[in-house]
Amino acid sequence: MIPTLPRTVRAVDTAQLLDLAQEAALHGFSQRLPVDWLREHLDTEATHYLFPTLVQRLTHRPDMPLQWRCQQLLTVSTGEQIWGLLDVLPDTFDKIPETLDTASKEGIVNRIEQAVKVR
Asked: How far is CA 113 from the centre of its chain?
């Protein structure tokens, strides 16, 4: 059974985001920004956001675990907010605490839609 995609936004600090990106790199997930690029460009004091939007299942690669494809709202060192994608394991995503209220989540999703795209 495929787990249900959560319809929520999770907030992470820069260290947590780097850990998530490292985990994605270790698994060879296709949607992620390079960890070195993130280390170089992210605002180290910022909060970043993940919004799951797609269940990623690679049927042609049964060895690859199921993933949530998350849109990201990242804050870089210039203060600009940018959009990116990050594939995250469902269990890993579930361990990120739910800290945002509904209004904050809606505002973040709106900002994600307007952010500069980075791939």
From this structure: 14
Comparing CA positions, the residue from 25, 36, 11, 9 lying closest to residue 89 is 25
Name the residue with tokens 């307007």. Answer: 114
- The phi and psi torsions of 97 (rounded to 5 degrees) equal -65, 145
Residues contacting residue 100 through CB under 8 Å, at least 6 positions apart: 8, 9, 10, 11, 108
What DSSP line would sit under the chain, residue for residue?
-PPPPP---EEEEHHHHHHHHHHHHHHT-SS---HHHHHHHB-TT-EEEEEEEEEE--TT-TTSPPEEEEEEEEEBTTS-EEEEEEEE-HHHHHTS-----HHHHHHHHHHHHHSEE--
pLDDT(60) > 70: no
Q: pTM of the entire structure?
A: 0.91
CB 74 within 8 A of CB 84: yes
Q: Which residue has the higher pLDDT, 50 or 4?
A: 50
